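Long-time lurker, finally posting.

We've been working with Exopolygalacturonase (Digitaria exilis) and I want a structural starting point before designing mutants. I don't trust myself to interpret raw outputs, so I'm hoping someone here can both generate the structure tokens and explain anything notable. Sequence follows.
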Amino acid sequence: MALSSNTPSLRVLFFLAMVVYAAHAGKAAPKEKGKEKSGGSAAAPEAASPEAASLEGATVSGGSSDISKAGAKGDGKMDSTKAVNEAWAAACGKDGAQTLTIPKGDYLTGPLNFTGPCKGSVTIQLDGNLLGSTDLGQYKSNSWIQIEHVDNLVITGKGTLDGQGKQVWKCDKKYYCKILPNSLVLSYVNNGTVSGITLLNSKFFHMNVFQCKDITIKDVTITAPGDSPNTDGIHMGDSSKVTITGTTIGTGDDCISIGPGSTGINITGVTCGPGHGISVGSLGRYKDEKDVTNINVKDCTLTKTSNGVRIKSYEDAASTLTASKIHYENIAMDDVANPVIIDMKYCPNKICTSKGASKVTIKDVTFKNITGTSSTPEAVSLLCSDKLPCSGVTLDGVKVEFKGTNNKTMAVCNNAKGTATGCLKELACL
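Top reply, 14 upvotes:
Generated this for you. Predicted structure of Exopolygalacturonase:
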């Protein structure tokens, strides 16, 4: 007997057949051999799961936090501290590559605390100018812009960090005056780049690099009057793999100072002046200072500075350390007061005693192809300790002549051991 399609049992069988067919049709067809190779029509890739898609998006996501949209006003008068700090927090708190944008304009701020770690990498795009407040009561530490515990940091642009130091330089060159805020401080930063920007008239150091690794500073301009107090261009300490290149620095103190604990430092193509030169040290002032080693300074020009390439340490050093493997090469001097100097009796403003027992060892230092003119007769001064003489000092092709007319070029080498080759006869004092 034929069954009607309206019969309940037939309807059940028909439904089951459709389920089986749908399940079979939903399966991916097996790949044919050779189709996965180039030239074949490979099967379409399976769609990524929502979780995988979300993870992939996090790695390529990016965004911009504009300080003007956070409430900052570029009139040079309104305090934009809160807006800039909030814009940093927004950029630091997002995944992927983020940009903190400082657009054109003059933005007045007090202390800026850019603290990590951040979820992604952050670029500070400095197109405008930040002005450091001259109200010293706002600064609870010795920093204006403090960036710490941040990895993969970039600071770039054509803008300026203006510390407005002229309004607060009231120390009259007294050593014990109030310590003023540094302009830009990098602390515990790994893999950072600072490029293109200008630092102007810092209240204290223009840039301080502390406990950092893999830092590049390139094509930066640092400017302050030659008589401004303690306005070092770039100071570093307890840091490794720092590169400074193509940078122009003129300040009232060291253009670059390489402090204790510095290793693997490379300085090339730097123009320095006015200032106190490119210095290692001072060393030994504080307890528990660490060694300085593998320092390379090449292809630099110094003009009208009070020192050229210098190593300085306290004779009554408070800590025991060694400065070694220091290499200066292809340095041009123009009217520099002390072009080549090791000073192990460094004692500024009579804050130390010359009767102390030296604890700083200086060895394996090379001065190669140092040329140009000196503003004083003493073109080379190796003033080492009688208790810990310098050793392994090399003068190679040192040809710096006194620019004046009444005195002859000369060198003084005290307690220094090493060799001199290819130098002016007057300078081969080793």
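Before you design anything, note these points.
The longest strand covers residues 321-336.
The first helix runs from residue 8 to 26.
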